[in-house]
Design brief:
The chain has 359 residues and is an alpha/beta fold. It contains 14 helices and twelve strands. The protein has a six-stranded mixed sheet, with helices on both faces. It has a three-stranded mixed sheet with strand order 3-9-8. A three-stranded antiparallel sheet has the order 11-10-12. The two termini are 24 Å apart.
Length: 359
Amino acid sequence: MSLSVGIVGLPNVGKSTLFNALLKRQAALAANYPFATIDPNTGIVPVPDDRLEKLAAVVGTTVIKPATVEFVDIAGLVKGASQGEGLGNKFLANIRETDLIVHVVRGFTDTSILREGSVDPKSDREIIEMELLLADMATLEKQRQPKVADKELQFKWQVVEKMQQAASQGKLLITVLESEDEQKVARELGLLTAKKILYAVNVDESVVGKQEEETKKYAAAFGVSAEQVVIISAKIESEVAALSDDDAALFLAELGLEKSGLERLIQKAFHFLGLQTYLTAGEIEVRAWTITAGTKAPQAAGVIHTDFEKKFIKAKVVSYTDFIELGGWKGTKEKGKQRLEGKDYIMQPDDIVEFMIGA
């Protein structure tokens, strides 16, 4: 499985600049006028994971396949988008296919960049989320109470009524969905505000190094937890994207940053969606596989191939630390650090795994 992230926001807040930086190429048109992005641009970005190169050195392979995140750069929304203003509902539809929304808001002060409806980060957030909520209300209004006494259909209708009431009160739907079954109804309807949202505040270069301070400030302004806020400078990310890995690390260190905006954004996205990776390592390739936290071994095997879940027998598991320190599969076997886990084993983020599959 891969993570799909939709980047949204008002025009000229830095969405396409950030998208270009994330992809390390000019895949989207970043221009100083509204609606520079005419079609949603999509790019697959590897999840930074410095464990993979170390594993590859141990097992003697040059083939490294990291976990990936799909970023979708969606054209700037404006007030009235839910009624067709600007480029309208076409781009709201693009958001429905994503797992997570990254809402880019303007925190920089460059007056040469046209605002195009942007006032301040708090107001910008409210404008976009109201348009998403209005679009959801239109979807919910199309639903009809079932005429048959079907338990599943009746449950779905109860959830629809609950969401209609919340939307009429201006509440994002995700705030009232209490169970996985309720969330499933929302997903099936493609409801936008039922998705989790991260806020990427595009700030001036002069304050990007003050991560903790700026995060708290904007979290308080938005009325959300600090875990939902990522402080980023799209301009700095563009500069970092043009550098080698070593030069980028030095540049970030000078700014007081340990990680790039990409790394921080992906880490928060994974955490927010309850995702993690496990690793496989052999002479053919080293690879990270994305699963949800709490996934058991057979289902994790099924991520590699659906038949593996059905034919799962055991999982040979080694911790990443032991694998590196003891020189791979041979060394961990000699030192008794390998263990066999069964169908009830819950996968851990540092697991190096080899699945045993029946015929």
